[in-house]
């Protein structure tokens, strides 16, 4: 974003000296008429955003259409608008004209408002603010014309023109611009300054070029140093052609256009330098970082489920084997006990025969296991 253009006081004064003779050739610069306080306000209503000649003619027509101010007060807005003729924004001006008359009459029951001259600037401002139909331009114009205050009355068209010339910044209101121009425009020069700016701002051939609604102003403002050159070109081409040319000059050029050989050489040199910088190997530095543990990939859900089921089956099988062994253990013990009882029963009669018949060798051979059985029995 471009920085805001700030114009020094000396540059503003130099611009105004160059601008005055140019505008004077195009338009007559009549002096402002003198009226009583209330009529000054009514004339300011007609003058806002209009040329001086047209405003004076419309005001005279309006006063001639009605016998007095009270008749104008009780008339409709449409009747007042017809009396204003082709004046710019005549409907709103008729409404404001009627509103000012109504406020003064309701306050004083007369159309005399000369007491404003006896008030200070601050009190006069407070009194004028109470008139809702009076615009900021009407109030400022009245304060300057009646009290001789060092204020610069500016309407909307004058503000647009001052911004275009570089004498004001975009976004400033009338009070801010008036305050900033006090060092440039002396109190005795306010009438001639406002007349010059008004003549330029309301020129039928140029006024659309200054209007920000038609041709938006750049946010950083205009350069006052180029104001005279821009104005000369605007007067030569007209608003539409001038802004079309300015638009083409400010449009960015296409990126795909042919490059000059010098630019190509520069780009290749830059590319080589950057590639050389990137190709330089970097020295390996010992890293004190601890080894990072590798992440163990988790097995899929199906395999884990199968493993869990197989494990459960094996554990149940082992349990069944243990229970079977435990059941078989007492039965084997009982069988061994029964076998030993049978052997002991057989051994009893053989022992008796061994005692009776000790001569035979076969009895001796049988007696040995019998004794063993008897010993085991005891």
Automatic annotation (TrEMBL):
Biased composition range(s): Low complexity: 306-317, 346-371
Superkingdom in the source lineage: Bacteria
UniProt-annotated stretches for the region Disordered: 248-378
Amino acid composition bias (Basic and acidic residues), ranges on this chain: 281-292, 318-330
Gene3D superfamilies: Hypothetical protein, domain 2 (1.10.340.30)
Name of the protein described by the UniProt record: Endonuclease III
Organism: Planctopirus hydrillae
